[in-house]
Amino acid sequence: MSLFGTPFDAVHDTAVVTGAGNGIGRAIAQALVDEGVRTVFADVSAERVSAAIAASSRPDLAVPWVGDLANMQACDALLATAYAALGEVTHLVHSASPPRREADHAFAVDRKTWQEMHAVNLDAGFHLAREIAKRLIAAKRAGSFLFLTSLHADTPRNLPHYSTAKAGMAILVRELAKTFGRYNIRVNALVPGAIAAGGFVADASLARHIPLGRLGQAEDLAPMALAVLSNRISAYVTGAAIVVDGGLSLTNWFEAPVLDA
Ligand SMILES: NC(=O)c1ccc[n+]([C@@H]2O[C@H](COP(=O)([O-])OP(=O)(O)OC[C@H]3O[C@@H](n4cnc5c(N)ncnc54)[C@H](O)[C@@H]3O)[C@@H](O)[C@H]2O)c1
Question: Which among 47, 124, 229, 253 is most buried, taking Cβ atoms within 10 Å?
Fold first, then answer.
């Protein structure tokens, strides 16, 4: 059998993707339905969900859900929709994150913005993963969860609400990977670099700090996301943080040498 031909079991694998209305979440949700996986496209924006589904290759496999994941009741409503539409949820991608504004430095960020950033990234991610895991464990089914973290889980971003939320997610991934491993539920982080998606207003000059010479696109993340989510390709990968950044994290104040060869 070809190794990459059928990464998913289209009959039994099902997915919930948060933040599926835009950027990286949208690219991953669209790639999942491309692979035949029935997928809930979850986002706070109804317009974005409709457009993401309409632009996918298999709208028939997509289930729309609209709500604010900063609210715990909304997280439960998302799960109820997913179970009603899909039966079981075997794969979770948590990509939703509120917009980040460069002005929200340590003195400027207000309490609401701080709390919303943590609520959507960390609280919703924990709640959704824990609830999905409970059902999978009861049903003795394997699962695979992927959290979109950031290089700024480790390095400051001048946005403390964002970097602390991502740092929390990074250790949450490792906590859950350790706890759920014996039940065959894998939990990993996908760490994007500078991706010209909605959440990051890209300055093109940043490209000169990226060894591969360009900013990333949401579509650069989707193949790796699917590889890590796939129980066929990545059955022995859990608790990992997979960096997809064109080499951005390799850069510092030393320029790369120019080679004569
Ligand atoms: N773009 C980058 O360069 C980059 C870099 C590192 C990490 N990331 C992470 O990757 C993920 C996706 O980033 P992106 O740039 O594609 O973001 P994006 O802003 O393009 O998309 C995020 C989506 O989340 C949705 N959302 C926001 N708040 C929500 C809420 N309360 N409830 C439900 N949905 C909500 C938005 O409507 C949007 O469609 C985020 O977690 C982000 O932190 C992105």
Answer: 229
Q: What are the tokens at 1? A: 């059998």
Answer whether 115 contacts ligand 1 (Cβ < 6 A). Answer: no
Residue 62 is predicted with a pLDDT of 98
d(CA 88, CA 86): 6
Domains and CATH numbers, the chain: 14-246 (3.40.50.720)
What is the SS3 assignment for 20?
coil
- The mean of the pLDDT values for the chain is 96
Q: How many C-beta atoms lie closer than 10 Å to residue 25's C-beta?
A: 31
**CB 191 within 8 Å of CB 241:** yes
Q: With a 6 A CB cut-off, is 70 part of the ligand 1 pocket?
A: yes
Distance of CA 256 from the midpoint of ligand 1 (Å): 31
**Pocket flag, ligand 1, residue 96 (CB < 6 Å):** yes
Give the number of the atom of ligand 1 that is nearest the alpha carbon of residue 120: 31
Provide the token pair at 102.
């460069």
Query: What is the DSSP code string of 77-99?
Result: HHHHHHHHHHSS--EEEE-----
Residue 200 has pLDDT above 80, yes or no: no
SS (H, E, C) 121-186: HHHHHHHHHHHHHHHHHHHCCCEEEEEECCHHHCCCCCCHHHHHHHHHHHHHHHHHHHHHHHHCEE
